[in-house]
Amino acid sequence: MDWLSIPGVADPVAAALLCAAAFAGGIVRGFTGFGFGMVFVPVASMAVGPAAAVGLIWFIDLPYAFPLAARSFPRAVWREVGPLLIGSVIALPLGVYLLTRLDRDLTRWIIATVIALALAAMISGWRYRSEPGVKLSLSVGGLSGLFNGLAQLGGMPLALFWLSSQTNSAQRTRDNLLVFFALNTLVSGLLFMAAGVVTMERFWTAIPLIIIYGAGLLIGVRGFHIASEQTFRRAAYAVIGASVLLALPVFDAWIR
Q: Are 119 and 163 in contact (CB under 8 A)?
């Protein structure tokens, strides 16, 4: 695979993993509005390490975050997005701190366990029947910020939050997610830079992956417009379930 070259990545197998993860993550992000981190980070962590994976994902998604959300801004439900964003900003620094301190495998076990429990509650049919209050929104936003800083998995708590609502449609959920991530990208970038997670070296590595990710996004966005509500939810649940498996360290050897 000498033809496959990514700046800063000497191993062609690692480069192939990064390309595959960027393309698959783009499809998922374009279709559901979230999930890029769930696909990319576990795979990229095996290739370049967790901190580098988090830095790369920020650069890769940055050029698309606001264009993707442009049409969603007037449709977003700001009474839901606002408190979630505030909670995320408050907890994000803690997540970034843990990213640079916690043992990698321990972190992955924690994330996998939390995702699995939440997914089980959703599949069981649990739903909250009323509009979420400010306290719940702030708490979910805080959890999103924590996971965002720790492993760029901030979309997971938000997706669970909105998909478990009886009042949210697929379009409303997707609009809220796209707007949230566009705004949160600006804040997280500053903290990642201060922590040394976002660097110029990772910028150059990300350039070819940005193009590959964009191709995946295009496929995902087109797929969303022809998918049914049931297909949307099934796809979202499948992404969350796959993230649980990919987050488990016991599968590292098999994936390699």
A: no
Q: Three-class SS string for the chain?
A: CCCCCECCECCHHHHHHHHHHHHHHHHHHHHHCCCHHHHHHHHHHHHHCHHHHHHHHHHHHHHHHHHHHCCCCCCCCHHHHHHHHHHHHHHHHHHHHHHCCCCHHHHHHHHHHHHHHHHHHHHCCCCECCCCCHHHHHHHHHHHHHHHHHHCCCHHHHHHHHHCECCCCHHHHHHHHHHHHHHHHHHHHHHHHHCCCCCHHHHHHHHHHHHHHHHHHHHHHHHHHHCCHHHHHHHHHHHHHHHHHHHCHHHHHHHC
Residue 152 above 80 pLDDT?
no
- The token duo for 53 is 């994976």
- From its phi and psi, is residue 138 left (phi > 0), alpha (psi between -120 and 50) or beta? alpha
- Segment 73-124, tens digit of pLDDT: 999 888 888 888 899 989 989 988 888 788 877 876 776 777 777 777 767 7
Q: Say how far apart CA 174 and CA 32 lie, in whole Å.
A: 6
pTM: 0.77
* Interatomic CA distance for residues 26 and 45, integer angstroms: 17
Q: What count of residues does the chain have?
A: 256
Closest CA to 50 of 184, 149, 144: 149
Q: Which range, 75-79, 98-102, 170-174, 203-207, has the best average confidence (pLDDT)?
A: 203-207
Residue recorded with tokens 């690692």: 14
Closest CA relative to residue 18, chosen from 56, 41, 44: 44
- Region class of 126: left (phi > 0), else alpha (psi between -120 and 50), else beta: beta
